[in-house]
Amino acid sequence: MKISVIVPAFNEEKLLGASLTEINAAANAFTARGWQYELCVCDNNSTDQTAAIARQHGAKVIFEPVNQIARARNTGASIATGDWFVFVDADTHPSEKLFADVATQISGGNILAGGVTMRLDEKLFIAGLVTHFWNYSSRLARLMAGSFIFVEAAAFRQVGGFSHEFYAAEELDLSIRLKKLARATGRKVVILHRHPILTSARKMRLYSGRELGIFFLRSIFQHRRTVRDREAAFMWYDGRR
Fold first, then answer.
1. Distant-in-sequence, close-in-space partners of 223: CB < 8 Å, separation ≥ 6
2. What distances in angstroms separate CA 131 from CA 123, 150, 196, 212, one per listed residue?
3. Torsion over CA of 173, 193, 83 and 18, rounded to 10 degrees?
4. Is pLDDT at 124 greater than 90 in this prediction?
5. Which domain holds residue 155?
6. How far is CA 143 from CA 34, 135, 176, 208, in A?
7. Which of 178, 183, 191, 200 is exposed most, by the fewest CB atoms within 10 A?
8. Is residue 228 situated within a structural domain?
9. Please, is 111 exposed, middle or buried when counting C-beta atoms within 10 Å of its C-beta (0-12, 13-18, 19+)?
10. Is 237 inside any structural domain?
């Protein structure tokens, strides 16, 4: 068995090193089973030291010139050689216990893909409420958060990977397509919750309440347009770090 951890990264020199250190440490859960492990980073048109930092941490690095999270994840997957892909965001820290839970699910043989509940690295009231609501909804509807997704490589390729139509919420679209494939093949998509993943709350600091409010209102009332428009999904693409 071989596991490929894939990290999309756009100008992430501030946080990437710590994330990759945590990922490499957590991967002990795979190597302890005798499984192979590789780390793949997609440099998504960065202008800082993202690529150099990735190489310092032993990652295979590939460059993607078009700034789009879906493309970055797919490009990262294009150099991955594992039987299973684990997508982890560049500001996110998985634990060895979480990776061990993933390994257990994979070994069971009836899981096609999965995600995990989240916790933030800062205690912020509104962000905490949103995260709590997301975690509940995610488990109920089996929708995977983009910060952490594990999926059988063959299944990922079968459904066509992440759709390039989306500049945000591409993980929800992938979740829906993988759930359909899981039903057709008698397998499951799961949301793990025993060891939530730690992810950054930086967007709550970097953007004003007005900016966040405008984005969320657009997401509710103009969802299809917002997630397909790079300018509307500005929080992922304006370079604020």
1. 169
2. 11, 20, 11, 15
3. 90
4. no
5. 2-200
6. 30, 9, 7, 27
7. 183
8. no
9. buried
10. no
Residue 232 lies in a domain: no
Give the Cα separation of 52 and 35 in Å (integer): 27
Give the CA angle between residues 9, 129, 172 to the nearest 5°: 45
| Sign of the alpha-carbon dihedral angle for 51, 56, 62, 68 | negative
Are 141 and 67 within 8 A, CB to CB?
no
DSSP 55: H
Residue identified by tokens 């300018």 is 231
pTM of the predicted model as reported, rounded to 2 decimal places? 0.95
CATH code, domain with 52: 3.90.550.10
* 56 contacts: CB under 8 Å, gap ≥ 6: 17
**pLDDT class for 213, splitting at 50, 70, 90?**
confident
Provide Rg for the chain, Cα atoms: 17
- What's the pLDDT score for residue 217? 81
Q: How far apart are the first and last CA of the chain?
A: 36
Tokens 């048109």 identify what position?
45
> Which single residue is written with the structure tokens 């004003």?
208
In a domain, 217, yes or no: no
CB 69 within 8 A of CB 146: yes
